[in-house]
Write a structure and sequence with these properties.
By secondary structure, the protein is an alpha/beta fold. The chain has two domains: 282 residues, UDP-N-acetylmuramoyl-L-alanine:D-glutamate ligase, CATH 3.40.1190.20; 133 residues, HUPs (Rossmann fold), CATH 3.40.50.620. The protein has 14 helices and 18 strands. The strands form four sheets. A six-stranded parallel sheet has the order 5-4-1-8-9-10, sandwiched between helices. The radius of gyration is 25 Å and the shape is globular.
Length: 433
């Protein structure tokens, strides 16, 4: 994104996470006692969108109202140095979202601030920034920024000349006409909670209706782990699926989506292409780390192989391995590694295809590719409790055993289905061709 300019406009929040461990309940109420181990303070709302956008390169300018209070001063101090701040005077109070987290889970949230107040006047730098922008992302968090008449007039004019992505909020103003892409989530699109599994047909109809009502080029309704529904033409809808990931904390997913889509639009991508990029980026952002962290994270199990032609023997091994713990990571040999091990003509499938097939199995939580001939290096990173091998390795000393012993892990074998192998499948296919 070098040389391009992305302008982020919207409400900033101060995010505070107090992190720790919870090992008992309080004697004065049915709530956990959290022994704190640290505190994380960062910019939230439009500030997080700008911070995430700055991580992709290019020049990022943040236009946001900032209150003259202590939390506002802290908010200024935690914005990344590579985000150029254009502060708009605001006579409200800084919104603060304070989460108490234990062992990777939020156990309580305390909010303060966010009182309404007049915005403006707009500094001249706002109009200059919008004129320089290759794309604009409006991150509305419902604190009044998008309703300011002067700012709306500038954004309306900007939308006539360059891509504007508008991420709306139920308490915020409607998007200005002419936005290239508007990205409500399911609640924002329907005006109510659609439940854990939104009706796709209803959401598609709603996306088309909102496109007309807002005068937008494209509306993309984001559906969390289900991806997004994107309007195409007058009455078409494209489903953009999200890759399967295990998400422990989805905070910031919408900001990551907006930042990625904004940069894609700035680079000339079509809205449907920008949504595809954004869905992948948001999924990667919320994906749980391969190594469980914190007390009570559970037993990590790992297994590995080439998985060149996935067969019933593989499936049985993976299901048995997953049953031994709380999470299964599959370590897959890269294409070059398979060729060295199996010889010319292998692998039969690219590593991208092998990984995608494995990720589709319900027994598999994560897949990681390694370049070496053996997985010792990746095992030292993962540090699983168990390394699972097929039953044909029973009684056989494997080199991974010594590696796992360093942290108290061990190798175990599980039964295998006799007569199933990639080599035999390939030979039968050749014989029948």
């Amino acid at each position: 994104m070098s040389g391009r300019v992305l302008v982020v406009v919207g409400d900033c929040l101060l995010d505070v996470d107090t992190v720790g461990r919870a090992a008992k309940l309080s004697p004065d109420g049915p709530v956990p006692v959290v022994q704190t181990t640290g505190e994380q303070v960062r910019a939230g709302g439009a500030g997080m969108t700008a911070a995430l956008a700055a991580g992709e390169g290019g020049r990022v300018l943040l236009v946001t109202p900032l209150a003259d209070d202590a939390d506002g001063a802290t908010l200024r101090s935690v914005l990344p140095a590579d985000v150029e701040l254009i502060a708009v005077p605001w006579r409200g109070s800084t919104p603060v979202k304070h989460r108490i987290r234990a062992s990777g889970q939020t156990v309580a949230r305390v909010d303060r601030g966010g009182a309404a107040g007049a915005i403006g006047p707009l500094p001249d730098a706002v109009a200059v920034a919008l004129e320089q922008a290759d794309a604009v992302v409006v991150a509305d968090y419902g604190y009044g920024t998008t309703g300011d008449p002067a700012l709306r007039a500038l954004l309306t004019e900007t939308a006539r000349r360059r891509p504007v992505l508008w991420d709306p909020h139920p308490r915020g103003a409607d998007p200005v006409p002419g936005c290239r892409l508007v990205t409500p989530n399911a609640v924002e699109a329907l005006g109510q909670d659609p439940g854990p599994r939104p009706d796709v047909a209803v959401m598609a109809d709603r996306a088309i209706a909102l496109r007309s009502a807002w005068g937008a080029g494209t509306v993309a309704v984001t559906l969390g782990p289900a991806g997004a529904l994107v309007t195409v033409g007058e009455d078409g809808v494209l489903a953009v699926p999200a890759p399967p990931v295990v998400a422990l904390d989805t905070c910031g997913a919408g900001d990551r989506f907006a930042a990625a889509a904004g940069w894609a639009l700035a680079a000339g991508a079509l809205p449907t292409e920008a949504v595809g990029v954004a869905v992948a980026a948001a999924s990667e952002f919320v994906a749980a780390p391969l190594v469980p962290r914190g007390e009570g994270a559970g037993v990590l199990v790992a297994t590995g192989g080439c998985f060149d032609l996935l067969h019933a023997g593989h499936v049985a091994t993976l299901e048995a391995a997953r049953a031994l713990g709380d999470r299964l990571v599959v370590c897959v040999n890269s294409d070059a590694s398979v060729t060295r091990l199996k010889g010319p003509g292998r692998p039969l499938q690219s590593v991208e295809d092998r990984v995608r097939i494995l990720q589709a199995l319900t027994s598999v939580d994560d897949v990681i590719v390694f370049e070496e001939d053996t997985p010792e290096q990746v095992l030292r990173t993962l540090r699983p409790k168990l390394w699972v091998k097929g039953g044909d390795y029973s009684g056989v000393e494997v080199p991974e055993a010594a590696v796992l012993a360093a942290w108290g892990g061990r190798v175990v074998t599980v039964p295998f289905l006799d007569g199933r192998s990639t080599t035999s499948l390939a030979e039968r296919a050749i014989a029948r061709s």
